[in-house]
Amino acid sequence: MILLLIVFSSCKNNQDEDYDSDDYEYNQEEEVEVVTAQSVVTDFIYLLGEQRYYDAHQLTDNPNWGDYSKFSSKSAFGSITETQLKDIKTVTEGSFSATVYAEVYYKDPVNGSNTFKHGFSQKRNIRKFRNNTKPLT
């Protein structure tokens, strides 16, 4: 599984009142944020549905989708007003990449609403993905 772990830990120091150097006590408080390829794809779909096109574009690395201006135009993703994630699964995982398939309904009053199957590929430790989209018939 592609994971990005951020771990914060702390231990008692000499300034704590109940610190005893003969009996060193280690307190560990961890806050872990796990970012998987599947969670990045889910975020992307959610952001489109919330009409947060800039944030969604920041998760992509697809030259065919162009810069933010092209990506957010009404002829591209900028007319999507709602999304419904119907199915999502991680298909392949490796040391350096992962592939996630998602079936998503997009409400798009300009270009027509439809359900699509997407194949998203992601490089390890990068919160961006490439996309191979096929409309469902």
What does this molecule look like?
This protein is an alpha+beta fold. The chain has a single domain, classed as Nuclear Transport Factor 2, Chain: A. The protein has three helices and four strands, in the order αααββββ. It has a four-stranded antiparallel sheet with strand order 1-2-3-4, with helices on one face. A hairpin with a 3-residue loop joins strand 1 (82-93) and strand 2 (97-107). The longest helix has 13 residues, at 37-49. It is globular, with a radius of gyration of 21 Å. 17% of the residues are buried. Residues 1-21 and 132-137 have low confidence and may be disordered.
Can you summarize the main beta sheet? 4 strands, antiparallel
Return the structural class: alpha+beta
* CATH structural fold name: Nuclear Transport Factor 2, Chain: A
Return the CATH class. Alpha Beta
The CA-CA distance between the termini, in Å, is: 31 Å
Number of structural units classed as domains = 1
The H/E string reads: HHHEEEE
Give helix % range: 10-25%
DSSP strand count = 4
Count helical runs: 3
Broad shape? globular
- Give the strand order, joined by hyphens, for the main sheet: 1-2-3-4
β-sheet strand percentage: 25-35%
Mean pLDDT: 74
Based on CA atoms alone, the radius of gyration comes out at: 21 Å
What is the second-level CATH architecture? Answer: Roll
The low-pLDDT segments are: 1-21, 132-137
